[in-house]
Amino acid sequence: MHFQALLKELATEEISIIECKLTDTSTNSKKKRSWDKIHRRFCELSKRERSLKEIKQQWRCLKLQAKKSLSDHKLAIYKTGGGPKTISPPEEFTELIPLEFVEDHNEYDSNGIATTDFSTESPNHEINEEKVVEILPSMSDQNLSTEMKNRKRETTVSDEYKETITRLAEQRYAELLKQKETEHNKRMENMELERK
Description:
transcription regulation, 196 residues, single chain, transcription, Regulatory protein zeste, Myb_DNA-bind_5, mainly alpha, 2 domains, two-stranded antiparallel ribbon
């Protein structure tokens, strides 16, 4: 049996343990026992003995190949210009470890502004509500994407929340300016050193 096929077959039996995302002591010891079991079975069934390190590395490579195949397939789907129909990636691996292929989603990205309706969170508080447009810093030199400038999300929020958003946006902008200034100064120092 081929090395990769044998590895897939053996790993399938222990998949729930070796692909567990937990890293506590108990789980890690279970993972170690599972990998030792896979290694022992592999050596029994294979013509050539391989180290546990080689087997784990091959398993990582198999997962990376599956991810690359899926990524290439997604890229091919969104290409324009016609051409032959794209071939779907083999699903055997994506079905085997589906959590590896789930895209993370965070409704609050690193520079996003929360747009939750806070008026329903606590019925005991009186909130002065009004329709507002998403608050962005008015500084013209901030690098905001065209999409972000043009997109307006209407949300119901309190005045206190608007003030917090404005304050946080201004703080973030000040931090970015300070960071850019520091980078600029470092570049200037490096250029000065190169001249000498």
